[in-house]
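Limitations

Structures in this collection are predictions, not experimental determinations, and the ligand pose is part of the prediction. Treat each record accordingly. The example that follows, with zinc ion as the small molecule, is included so readers can see exactly what is and is not provided: the inputs are given verbatim, and the output is the predicted complex.
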Amino acid sequence: MKIIREVIEELLAISKDNYPLEFVALLRGKKGVIEEYIFLPGTEFGHTSAIFRIDMLPLGQKIHGTFHSHPSTNNHPSQQDLSMFASNGNYHIIAAYPYDMGSWRCYDKLGNEVRIEIIDE
Ligand SMILES: [Zn+2]
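Predicted complex:
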């Protein structure tokens, strides 16, 4: 899987702006590339809850996974994160404080770390 540099940079910037609140978004794009993110109406923000309303998603969109921020330096998925991952695609990025290029990781739906390549559009 690949992600466009501008997309991950924007997600990190929004995470920083929302700190200490958690920020969540869905990741979408064409096959093999995360090209954009979507905020969903009805998404709840909070330290312990990142709840997606997948029923609010327009039909026909290819969802690769999720992005969310943690208000700490821990970028590992919680049990709650894993249950959210399971039904929202197979690539899940968690960004931790201070939300720079070195503080995020990507996981598959089971919580195993996976590598994502950053590409320039
Ligand atoms: Zn989390």
